[in-house]
Amino acid sequence: MQHRAAGVRKTFRASVHFNRARAVAIATDASAWGIGAVRYLQGRPADFFSSALEKCDEDLFGHAIGDPAGQQTWERLSSLVALSTWRRHWEAARAVLRMKSDSVAALTLLLQFKSSGDDASLIARELALDLASAAFRPDVEDVIHVPGCANVAPDALSRVHQPGHSVALPAYLAEATERHPPTRSRDFYLAVRA
Questions:
Q1: Rounded Cα–Cα distance for residues 115 and 103 (Å)
Q2: Residue-wise pLDDT tens digits, 45-58
Q3: How far apart, in whole angstroms, are the C-alpha atoms of residue 157 and residue 66?
Q4: What does the alpha-carbon distance between residue 1 and residue 156 come to, in Å, rounded to a whole number?
């Protein structure tokens, strides 16, 4: 944890004493060109992001951008980036994570924090390091597999960076705030630096 710029800071609130957990609902998706996610608050989209896959992702995980062979890796990466983007909603207080994805591999990784294969293992270690920095380990209460056709907003967000492809975002995202996830360079990945 010494690699974190400000160190690890733990905050304890009265709500924790009364075991009141904040629900953090996130839906994610990935394509061969990008990742996308939506955070929901009381069932309504609160904020979202769309991020192109980076050269660093390609080099680190060994899958070319645009190659469908990396699909499961990008699905897992979308969960890691989503949790990192919305860290402030779960890091300092008790939280219940409710994750939705059309990827069984990404959901399994969130439940078990382990997986086979170098790329999946790296993402599992990153998730474990992220969650270790929290004041309390978030409870993963709901892990919901949704059919690809029902994962509308995250799917559209993941395809924004697809070359030659125009994407219309769902109208219900108009009132949500667009977020910018952390820049992914080798410094983003703590397990690589260790």
A1: 14
A2: 999 999 999 999 99
A3: 15
A4: 35
Place of tokens 């629900």: 23
Which tokens hold the place of 190?
Answer: 């703590």
**CB 31, CB 158: distance < 8 Å:** yes
Structure-block tokens of residue 130:
């992220």
CA angle 178/22/91 to nearest 5° reads 70
Structure tokens given for 156: 């559209």
The span from the CA of 185 to the CA of 31, in Å, is: 19
The one-letter amino acid at 149? C
CA pair distance 79, 26, nearest whole angstrom = 9
- Return the sign of the alpha-carbon dihedral for residues 36, 186, 190, 3: negative
pLDDT for 129-167, tens place per residue?
Answer: 888 888 887 887 778 888 877 889 999 999 999 999 888
